[in-house]
Amino acid sequence: MGARDVAAHRIALVVSAADHVWLSSSPARLDTLRAAFATAVRSPETEIENLYLVLALPPSQLGFHRGYRDAPVRLPESPATDSVLGGAIALCWAKEDEAAAQALERATLEDAIVTTGARSVRRFVLRLDAPDFANAERDTAFGDRLMHAVRSAAVTAAETTTAVFLGVRFVATHIPPGPEALLVRALERKNIAVLPVMRHDDRTLFALSCQDKFLLLELRNGPRKKSKAIESIEEIVDRLGLSKESIESPEAAEAASDDVFRRFCEIPARR
Hints:
Blueprint: E1 7-15, H1 17-24, H2 27-41, E2 46-55, H3 64-70, H4 81-94, H5 98-105, E3 108-116, E4 119-128, H6 130-138, H7 140-154, E5 162-168, H8 179-189, E6 193-199, E7 203-210, E8 213-220, E9 228-231, E10 236-243, H9 250-266
Parallel strand pairs: 1-2, 4-5, 8-10
Antiparallel strand pairs: 3-4, 6-7, 7-8, 9-10
Helix pairs in contact: 4-5, 4-7, 6-7, 8-9
């Protein structure tokens, strides 16, 4: 400066949130503060370059310029797959996307860290039951909504890259609680094989097999309707109907499965 060499100093003034607002909201106050520090620092060998307001961070009351150096290194743990799936379900319900939320409730989620070169990607496979997977293939927007919900729930500060793929749920995986689960378990206890073949918003169609005999069972919302028959290429396959409202307890599901089993007994043996 002029004919003399000086050491320029940058000063960080760590202040509380209230003082930070009070000082930064008035240029005149801040200029007065800078002038006071400049006077205090000025000497034949020193001058102030600038004064910075730094917010004190609780609980240490240090500014981030010191806090990030002193804080222990902590790598956040990746959320478990159950947590990711739960977050995706909650997100869909918050968006009032009932179809996506219910499909996720019936799904399972797997993950693995896949390393390619210097990059690591957390890869998810969302396993949908067969009817939901078929719907996702027919309606790409529906599948995109499911994958977007999982990606949104899986994002972390440490993992910026995730990949989500759709797959078919294994038959032996968990069925969420509710009328459908109660009925399926009751039927399986009677050695009736159960396979969901179609699912819409208001009904699910199951294919049932027992002792080389076959039935179609439709579980729907609303009042129960009469059973009806539909014609296949070779034979008449009985189609039964049940309402979800009639399966409100394990006892009701057991009674419904008894009715279905009796219907199997009434079907003539195939020749």
